[in-house]
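A.,

Following up on our hallway conversation. Structure tokens first:
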């Protein structure tokens, strides 16, 4: 039942088969406190009253958004937090939800300066019946369309006002229009038109910009829900002096909240800053006079108790000084005495931090193309000088080639000085990376120490290299009559004679 009063308008359970669509608490947020604004935790709710003492008869009732009012329980109804009740209104009755009961209501009355015996406190009629709940939901369904239609009518009438919210009474007999305006608005004609349009009693309530933000809610610059819609109830004035005391830049875009006014959080830490500033000397229209020149205040670090000064002739150098040292210089200047220098006279040289600022691109983010620059500093630079020959690890300086076994062999062709010309080295063929030709299959394979294949002639009798070479490549018989057919030697004439 509590989700039906959600300010988002998404808590209608009729569209989702009885399941609320607002906060996904499925109707339990009335007891747990979920999405309700300005909740108060009843830490005395589970405690029994002393004997002979009656419970406090005034309760707090919550209506749409953060509107809360107090009512007297004259009939001594047993009411708990989250109960939907019918209360007195003018005219008719209204429907609300009990938000607080018991002794804590006394503290809420004192906080809002409401007297217990005040005649303005109305009474509670009864717990809401089913007919009251049905009419209440019908009234809430009309609020959005009524607000849009009323805005159109106000524009036609030329009224300088902004309608921010509309709230129907529980019995559909009255509608409350909340608006904001910079000046006084004559809305008498508007009330007549709205009464003829919606056939209800019209009530106009002017609220401020902060109250409007409190009713509508939102997310602040800190990433959390607005303070005015969650826990802040009193809106104190915030001035620009609060930003000056906290050393903040007077930028209205950063200091203003969603309501267009200065943020309420500027007052949260103001007292701490004011207490810390009491120990600092007043440097308004004052200068530190030294023999080197006059120094003026650049900035102040309140919590570190540091003050930064600069000379008039050199404004790019910031000199840090403690608050006590600044007071000493002011005392000397009051006696018409001048120290030699701020750094050498009153600060240790080892601890003095003189900062030189370059006001051109201080942050380093002025360039829009700063992320497009290549990181050439971390990469090795491969630059070839065409005037000098490229040095190859496998080539000597005078046309020599180093083999894998460490020996040096001259090249048939001169070494090319231009690395872009000539055949490229082939590293996939042969042991020599600079060799482009295939190895000769008839080449003597026994002399190569890098040979992996076995020699087929290695196991045949004598060594093949010790035999005389046969000049006849076709192994045909020699037809020379003067030679022997087996040994290819010339015949001996003495054997023929024998």
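Then the amino acids I'd put at each of the 498 positions:
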């Amino acid at each position: 039942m509590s989700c039906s009063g959600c300010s988002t308008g998404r808590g209608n359970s009729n569209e989702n088969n009885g399941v609320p669509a607002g906060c996904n608490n499925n109707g339990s947020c009335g007891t747990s406190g979920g999405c309700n604004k300005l909740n108060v935790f009843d830490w005395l709710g589970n405690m029994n009253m002393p004997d002979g003492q009656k419970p406090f008869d005034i309760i707090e009732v919550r209506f749409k958004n953060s509107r809360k009012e107090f009512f007297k329980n004259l009939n001594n109804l047993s009411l708990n937090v989250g109960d939907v009740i019918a209360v007195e209104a003018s005219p008719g009755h209204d429907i609300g939800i009990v938000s607080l009961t018991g002794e804590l209501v006394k503290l809420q009355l004192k906080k809002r300066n409401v007297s217990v015996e005040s005649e303005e406190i109305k009474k509670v009629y009864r717990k809401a019946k089913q007919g009251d709940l049905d009419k209440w939901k019908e009234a809430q369904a009309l609020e959005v369309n009524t607000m849009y239609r009323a805005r159109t009518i106000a524009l036609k009438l030329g009224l300088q006002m902004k309608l921010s919210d509309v709230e129907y009474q529980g019995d559909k007999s009255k509608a409350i229009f909340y608006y904001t305006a910079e000046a006084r608005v004559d809305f008498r004609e508007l009330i007549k038109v709205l009464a003829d349009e919606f056939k209800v009693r019209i009530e106009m309530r002017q609220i401020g910009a902060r109250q409007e933000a409190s009713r509508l809610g939102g997310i602040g610059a800190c990433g959390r829900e607005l303070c005015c819609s969650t826990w802040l109830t009193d809106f104190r004035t915030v001035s620009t002096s609060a930003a000056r005391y906290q050393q903040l830049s007077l930028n209205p875009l950063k200091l203003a909240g969603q309501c267009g006014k200065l943020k309420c959080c500027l007052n949260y830490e103001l007292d701490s800053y004011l207490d810390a500033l009491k120990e600092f000397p007043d440097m308004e229209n004052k200068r530190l006079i030294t023999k080197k020149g006059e120094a003026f205040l650049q900035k102040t670090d309140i919590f570190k108790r540091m003050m930064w000064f600069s000379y008039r002739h050199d404004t790019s150098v910031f000199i840090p000084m403690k608050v006590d040292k600044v007071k000493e210089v002011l005392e000397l200047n009051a006696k018409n005495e001048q120290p030699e220098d701020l750094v050498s006279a009153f600060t240790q040289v080892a601890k003095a931090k003189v900062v030189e600022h370059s006001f051109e691109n201080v942050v380093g983010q002025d360039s829009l193309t700063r992320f497009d620059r290549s990181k050439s500093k971390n990469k090795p630079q491969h630059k070839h000088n065409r005037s000098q020959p490229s040095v190859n690890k496998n080539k000597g300086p005078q046309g020599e080639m180093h083999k894998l076994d460490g020996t040096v062999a001259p090249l048939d062709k001169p070494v090319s000085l231009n690395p872009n010309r000539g055949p490229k080295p082939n590293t996939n063929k042969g042991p020599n990376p600079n060799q482009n030709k295939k190895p000769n299959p008839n080449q003597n394979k026994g002399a190569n120490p890098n040979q992996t294949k076995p020699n087929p002639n290695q196991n045949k009798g004598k060594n093949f290299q010790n035999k005389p070479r046969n000049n006849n490549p076709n192994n045909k018989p020699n037809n020379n009559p003067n030679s022997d057919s087996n040994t290819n030697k010339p015949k001996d004439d003495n054997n023929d004679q024998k």
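The two ends are 144 Å apart (CA to CA). Curious whether your intuition agrees with the design.

B.
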